[in-house]
Design a protein that fits this description.
It comes from Marinobacter adhaerens (strain DSM 23420 / HP15). It is built from 13 helices and 21 strands. A hairpin with a 4-residue loop joins strand 6 (198-201) and strand 7. It folds into three domains: 1-124, no CATH class; 132-265, NAD(P)-binding Rossmann-like Domain (Rossmann fold, 3-Layer(aba) Sandwich); 294-460, Dihydrodipicolinate Reductase, domain 2 (2-Layer Sandwich), CATH 3.30.360. It has helices spanning 3-34, 50-58, 70-80, 92-102, 106-113, 126-131, 143-155, 177-186, 247-250, 296-311, 356-363, 398-411, 462-476; strands spanning 36-40, 43-44, 88-91, 134-139, 162-169, 198-201, 206-209, 212-218, 235-239, 259-264, 273-274, 290-292, 314-324, 350-352, 371-378, 384-392, 418-421, 438-441, 446-448, 451-458, 482-483. Helix 1 packs across helix 2 (50-58) and helix 10 (296-311) packs across helix 13 (462-476). The chain is an alpha/beta fold.
Length: 489
């Protein structure tokens, strides 16, 4: 290779960096002014670095026949910036690929593809924007609670959205309790540092995270807080403790002033609706005061199972979950009321039970009685895998089912729930931070006749938290239309 050709590679890279840099102010303005969340093939690009934006474009090689360049998407952003858009999720990567196929006038193309939100921007005063937000309270501040806080704080930047107003915890006993909790939000051994700044207000018992003022309330019970004292009204309480899982227990939250609805981040018991967003969120009504977001595993497998059921039909099957250890297990051998869970989580694979397979039927009744399930806890801190061993009603082959699931991940109504990866080198840590409920590993798919085995990765912390926020958005009436509806006909 000549010296000139070598230099050309670097020149091409710096040109891509420059183009990505030009995209950042457009992405930010669309988000903060218009409440438009932009992405590239499902990878959100708001608040991302130049390298992250280029990497999101690079991902397209795995799922399309050609590469996608920042040179293709910059014109899309520039044109969108002039259209006075209303609130929406817009995948500029899919739009760019479709526009390359169709050609023509870019502005007219966008008016066809995202027409319902063109010209729908309505400027609001700061007071009106505040009135359009929905107060959210996190009851409990463990693994899921802190990740929910991160997502809610991140998404507050666009306004007219969910607003995290308070965190309720028990008094930890330490003099610097508030600082300790702030530190756990600021630093995370799995998910890395908080993306922003956090200030502790000891006097007012509050955290200020990226400008969001979050009151920290100490309480011994869900019915012992008067939220209106802190200016919080008609709030949605997200209960992350798992302590109360039936209507009687969760109903205690509704006895506190300022609370209008409650959602549980665990499987609910009794008649509580277990909601898997993308599957049965249309079951949510204004009359529902208490809901459950089911479990991380149920959220991971139900969308993929629905896709397979719709296309091939499922006779029966078994779900084996290879799950990262959780805080419920012991770090070293010690007494535990559960079988095997008393043994060291960091040293052992531990067979345990899971109700996820049966819980699928609560969101997808057509599969009632068709699935069995078990779980193996393994010595990793995050990211799990579900192995779906299914007997189908139709014959299937590897290429056909992978093509179908790829299309579902990219172009269906389940595109926020199902992701798709086609690399022979991926491992569990590659999926830390994934906001999809589950990721189909195409290289691991096995099919023969009516027998199908799928491997589905999922970030059992972050992916699940993203699903919870989607449910809360719907409960709050904060709805984002998604464009394009389909990148292919």
């Amino acid at each position: 290779m000549s010296h000139e050709q070598i230099n050309q590679h670097l020149s091409n890279w710096t040109e891509r960096e420059s183009t990505a840099e030009a995209m950042i102010p457009l992405i930010g303005r669309l988000y903060r002014k218009n409440n438009v969340v932009t992405s590239v093939y499902g990878r959100a690009i708001i608040n991302q670095s130049v390298i992250d934006i280029i990497r999101a474009h690079r991902f397209v090689r795995q799922v399309e026949d050609s590469e996608l360049s920042v040179h293709d998407t910059l014109p899309i952003l520039q044109a969108m910036d002039k259209l006075d858009l209303g609130r929406a999720h817009v995948d500029i990567g899919k739009l760019a690929v479709k526009f390359k196929d169709e050609g023509g006038d870019l502005t007219e193309f966008l008016k066809r593809e995202i027409g319902p939100v063109v010209g729908q921007y309505a400027a609001q005063s700061e007071e009106d924007a505040h009135n359009d937000t929905k107060d959210v309270v996190l009851y409990g501040f463990g693994r899921i609670g802190r990740l929910l806080a991160r997502i809610l704080i991140e998404k507050a930047g666009g306004g007219n959205n969910l607003r995290l107003r308070a965190i309720v915890v028990r008094q930890g006993g330490a003099e610097n309790d508030l600082e300790k909790r702030a530190s756990l939000l600021r630093r995370d051994s799995v998910h890395g540092p908080f993306d922003g700044t956090i200030t502790v207000d000891e006097k007012e018992s509050a955290l200020i995270a990226n400008g969001n003022y979050i009151k920290v309330i100490y309480s011994d019970g869900p019915d012992k807080v008067d939220y209106t004292e802190y200016g919080i009204n008609n709030a949605i309480v997200i209960d992350n403790t798992g302590k109360w899982r039936d209507e009687a227990g969760l109903g205690l939250h509704l006895k506190s002033k300022g609370v209008s609805r409650v959602i549980l981040t665990a499987p609910g018991k009794g008649d509580i609706k277990n909601i898997v967003y993308g599957i049965n969120n249309d079951w949510i009504t204004d009359d529902d005061k208490i809901l459950s977001a089911a479990s991380c595993t149920t959220n991971a497998i139900t969308p993929v199972l629905k896709a397979i059921e719709d296309e091939y039909g499922i006779e029966d099957g078994h779900v084996e979950t290879v799950h990262s250890y959780t805080n419920d297990q012991n770090l070293i051998d010690n007494y535990h009321k559960g079988s095997r869970r008393g043994r060291s989580a960091a040293l052992n694979m531990v067979i345990t039970e899971t109700g996820a397979a049966k819980a699928v039927a609560k969101a997808l009744p057509v599969l009632k009685g068709k699935l069995t399930g078990n779980a193996i806890r393994v010595p990793t801190p995050n990211v799990s895998m579900a192995i779906l061993n299914l007997n189908l009603k139709k014959d299937v082959d590897v290429e056909g089912v992978n093509d179908y699931l790829r299309d579902m991940a990219l172009h269906s109504e389940l595109q926020k729930q199902i992701d798709f990866v086609n690399s022979p080198e991926v491992v569990s840590t590659d999926f830390v931070g994934s906001r999809h409920a589950g990721i189909v590993d195409a290289q691991a798919t096995i099919a023969s006749g009516k027998r199908l085995i799928l491997y589905v990765w999922y970030d059992n912390e972050f992916g699940y938290s993203a699903q919870v926020v989607r449910v809360v958005n719907q409960m709050a009436g904060v709805n984002y239309p998604i464009f394009p509806k389909r990148a292919r006909d």
